[in-house]
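Running co-folding for pyridoxal-5'-phosphate.
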Amino acid sequence: RIAYVNGRYVPHAYAQVHVEDRGYQFSDGVYEVCEVHDGHLVDETRHMARLGRSLKELRIREPMSAKALGHVLRETVRRNRVRNGLVYLQVTRGVAKRDHPFPKDDVPPAVVVTARAIDPKKSAKSAENGISVITVPENRWDRVDIKSVSLLPNVLARQAAEDAGASEAWFVDTDGYVTEGSATNAWIVDQDGRLITRPAEFGILRGITRTVVVDLAAREGVEIVERPFTVEEARKAREAFVTSATKLVMPVVKIDDAVIGNGKPGSIAGKLRELFYTQAEIAP
Ligand code: PLP
């Protein structure tokens, strides 16, 4: 495997960053994960736009143009011979003497890109059976709209899910509303067939897959309501699912101890998963 590290393509085993990289010391950095489908990047434009926003919110300088970054992503995918999988891009504020405020000197941001294959059959198998999720208290900071590498609460939530034999954890705020998954956005279908997902203005990351699925549902004539929903509602929902660049539309058949619908993936989730690429942007 090959990784891109600050201007060089290096063997994965030797891909290293400095001990005083601010990403390593302060989680002072942002990232994107882009799906690779048949050797092409999915929704590159939207991912680049969100990266630009994350960088701007943290006042980290753009390391290079979106076009140049796109080239690095593609080159990393190519060198790793990934047909289906993901490409990971991380930008940190760079290397500086450890001190909390932003470095005064013009430190160049540090850029890392890796790519790896994922067997599409595995994901398809999960989608056929559906996944289980657990719920955990929301304990993240309130700027989760920034796709920062500060992911410790997400890591702990996801591990709690694994420990419970589930695949994902949904964060739940103090009022009982689901915010989102540890690495996915959360959705339900109510008993009237309406698609419900939390508005992306506050408290969640605006998932690229979420945006695509909102468009797709509208196109398919599925009524969609962007509002917060509670765990109680979710437990009684007709369907539930999660979305992300790596899971696409993944049906949820169990939330904690509650079986969703008839315990099988729902038809709306299945349809949206099937149609995903008709609305996504597949860049050459
Ligand atoms: N929410 C969180 C916390 C995430 O980390 C992710 C993706 O990693 C998502 C939602 C889904 O976003 P996307 O569809 O852009 O992958």
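Result summary
Residues 33, 180, 183-185, 205, 207-210, 243-245 surround pyridoxal-5'-phosphate (CB under 6 Å).
The chain is about 30% helix and 30% strand.
Job closed.
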